[in-house]
Amino acid sequence: MTAALEVRDIHHDFGGLVVLQGVDLAVREGERHAIIGPNGAGKSTLFNIITGRLRPRRGHVLYRGRDITGAAPHRVARQGIGRSFQIINIFPRLTVFQNVRSAVVSRRGRRLDAWSLLDRDAEITRETEMVLELLGLADRRDTPASALSYGEQRELEIALTVAVQPDLVLLDEPTAGLNAEDTRRAVALIRRVTEGKTLVMVEHDMDVVFTLADRISVIHYGRVLASGPPDAIRTSEEVRRAYLGRKAGAAGR
Amino acid sequence: MSQRRLGMAAAVAALYALPWVLDTVRLRMAIEILYFGLFAVSFNLLFGYAGLLSFGHAATFGVGGYTLGLVLRHVEGASVPLALLAAAAAGGLAGLVIGFFCVRLRGTYFALLTLAFSQFLFAVALKWREVTRGDDGLSVSVPDLALPGGLVLRLGQAPHFYWLALTVVLLALGAAWRFTRTPLGNAVVLMRENDERAAFLGYNVFGTKLIVFTFAAVLAAVAGALFAAFQRLISPSALDLPMSTEVVFMAILGGTGAFLGPFLGAAVYMLIQNWLSEATEHWPFFIGLLFVLMILYAHQGLTGLLGRQGPLRRRWTARRLPAEEPA
Amino acid sequence: MFPLPVYATQALHGLVNGMLLFLVSSGLTLVFGMMGILNIAHAAFYMLGAYLAYTTVQVTGHFWLSLAVAPVVVGLLGAAVERWLLRRTHAFGHAYELLLTFGLFFMIQEAVRWIWGNYPLQVPVPAELAGSVPFAGGRYPAYRLFILGVSAVICLGMALVLLRTRIGIIIRSAVSDAEMVSALGVNTPLVSLGVFSAGSALAAVAGVIAAPFLQADPAMGAGILTDAFVVIVIGGFGSLLGALLASLMIGQLQSFGILWFPQLALVFQFMLMAGVLILRPQGLFGEKG
């Protein structure tokens, strides 16, 4: 079977600092795939390469068999790939509604529509409100994004990502900085909104990873150390040595 | 809704009736306010909406002026509307070319590159004497305009020119206002707010910025063409830095957060400048002082000041933005 | 074609003008690199320096005294601008900081015209340097060579301060990462104040030195403004070495441009600037960002 997303032999460095040295990864259609690894292992760099923010020094990214290596971010997005960001990346002075509506406009391919009046477009408004409903942000509809709480901004970040209805969703640390309660909500939310889609996520919280993921890849020193179902990863001696052991020790907080 | 339409119709009717109310001196100022207002609104499509601070917006203003002048001079039987259309087209073309190079850059870099292009065009206008007459400028003779129904606008007379300018400016402002409310206009605001995020939602950042740059150039060229037709002269100063900076003053003064803010700014600026320059020859000092004070205490401009909570807010603001967040 | 000595003289002209331009743009570059602000008022500070030189000579009869008076006065003015105006504008973003300095430029420029009149004022060349020296078969004004010398000394002095002293290290690291420097316990607001003030003082020094050469002219601020912009764009925003090279390039370009293509002299530098921005937006020596 063909993979939804395939990453082949990706190399990257920043001014001599080698970050990725030959990453291979295959994500199947419809699976929830988590990428874990210590800080600085190159996870976010890999995300940036997949979504066109960076062009790798070497290697290829294939989406449904098509080479998208180094394509401009908006072209990658139009293929049906949506991503969220580790650091909140929204439209701060627009309302929650205007934020999400901008994504809906893009999904409907109306980005260049220079004639119709956006405020009067009932279909776009309805679809936007559906997304807000789904994400539980409906009661914050007219709040400027910058006035939301941190947890709500995280939700808006995810809302923007899924409002373009991507087939492949990439979430970069969707629970970063959230407390236990908000994290639980975020997990439920992610499960709900990625139903039937392919999900790739970078995540540090092992509870989240093992709750959500069908498969896990461990990146270590710029390479994929192991890739497999959660149980295999949990019991892998190699992974334990490199990463989980330390993390498990630290997770006893 | 219909009440609002009624109000607008009344306002437009009142504007058309101005020549019966104002004396010639004031009417001439009203005409200047019209085209500088359009110029300032077009600047603000870039600055207030797209977040692109241009220091060379006079470039396309001047291109419009020169195009009108050259068309009326060299094209046999050319009418003013034809010359205005030609000016708009030339402005659009210039905007497309300049924008192609400029919109890839951000912030100060963008400001300086637009400045470089306008200075380049300024130098061309100054040196290409065969076409532009250099420093002396190109004198423009404006033919009368025959309207359907046997009416003739004698554009040498202030009231007639006013009606033409008002019609053109209202049409241009209407188009610009409509543009800001469309999905594409919304995309332009995304460029200001966070163009990177917009790209990951599928928006073509370069394309969107190039479109708004070109559109603003077309409007600026129309304003410049009216300027040239009214002054009966177009000279390199129309492309020079002071022209580019005056429009920045106007926009900031009126408020960049509202669609008509810059238009209001242009009107207030003309009035203040008129009044100051009669009071003192050192009026630029006070204009500078006013500008500095505005930025320190009211960088949202007059419209931001007037409409913080009042009923004006909804009328004047293009989209209900919350007060700017300190980043 | 021209005889060889003409080239030599033009080249020297270009060098003198280029170094003077560097003196103006170095302060601008320093401030931009450190604070991210393109200080348009810098050109007005330069003009103010020239007029202060005029007044100092008028009042005291000593040109050299103005080399102390002008930088102190303008440096204090710069400090006041940073402390009471720019710092308040910071929250609105760089565009408004730029616009604020722009408004200040207009104010100072017009204030100068108000105080000193809207016509050029002659500042006499100090007697010690009034003569000329033999050069390339002709003679060359000694004062222009003095400009060259002073600019070179200041250039070296800046390099020494930036490369060898503790404050230089702090400034250089603040250029690359202001937050980190702040986290290390350095008083960044104070460094900003100092750098802005020093940059303004440098502009005044350039104005003083330029005065006997170019006169104190009400249009000199606007004139130097675009040239200095071109220099920092070509050199790379915030790069002093780039500013030096770009200044020398522009100096020669203007010198020989006038010789060969008088029609296009104005156009050349903007074409060069546009070319650099298009091909290498960060400038010759600027860092990408």
Explain what the structure shows.
- The complex is a heterotrimer of chains A (253), B (327) and C (289).
- Chain A is an alpha/beta fold.
- Helices cover 38% and strands 25% of the residues of chain A.
- Chain A contains nine helices and ten strands.
- A six-stranded mixed beta sheet of chain A has the order 6-7-8-3-9-10, sandwiched between helices.
- In chain A, strand 1 (3-14) and strand 2 form a beta hairpin.
- The radius of gyration of chain A is 18 Å and the shape is globular.
- Chain A starts with a strand and ends with a helix.
- Residues 248-253 of chain A have low confidence and may be disordered.
- In chain B, a hairpin with a 5-residue loop joins strand 2 (145-146) and strand 3.
- Chain B is globular, with a radius of gyration of 19 Å.
- Chain B is mainly α and 327 residues long.
- In chain B, the strands form two sheets. In chain B, strands 1-4 form a two-stranded antiparallel ribbon. In chain B, strands 2-3 form a two-stranded antiparallel sheet.
- In chain B, 55% of the residues are buried.
- In chain B, helix 1 runs antiparallel to helix 7, helix 2 packs antiparallel against helix 9 (205-231) and helix 2 packs across helix 11 (261-279).
- Chain C has 289 residues and is an all-alpha fold.
- Chain C has eleven helices and two strands, in the order ααααββααααααα.
- In chain C, strands 1-2 form a two-stranded antiparallel sheet.
- In chain C, helix 2 (41-60) packs across helix 9, helix 3 packs across helix 8 (188-214) and helix 10 packs antiparallel against helix 11 (265-279).
- Chains in contact: A-B, B-C.
- The B-C interface holds B 47, 53, 101, 104-105, 107-109, 111-113, 115-117, 119-120, 123-124, 126-127, 241, 245, 248, 252, 282, 284-285, 287-289, 291-292, 295-296, 299, 324, 326-327 and C 32, 36, 38, 85, 88-89, 91-96, 98-100, 102-107, 109-111, 113-114, 222, 226, 229-230, 233, 237, 263-264, 266-267, 270-271, 273-274, 277-278, 281.
Straight-line distance between termini of chain A: 42 Å
Q: What distance separates the N and C termini of chain B? A: 38 Å
Main sheet of chain A, how many strands, which sense, barrel?
Answer: 6 strands, mixed
E-strand count of chain B: 4
Q: Which radius of gyration of chain A do the C-alpha atoms yield?
A: 18 Å
Tally of strands of chain A: 10
Biggest pleated sheet of chain B: 2 strands, antiparallel
Strand order of the largest sheet of chain A: 6-7-8-3-9-10
Strand content of chain A: 15-25%
Question: What is the 3D form of chain B?
Answer: globular
Overall outline of chain A: globular
The number of helical runs of chain A is: 9
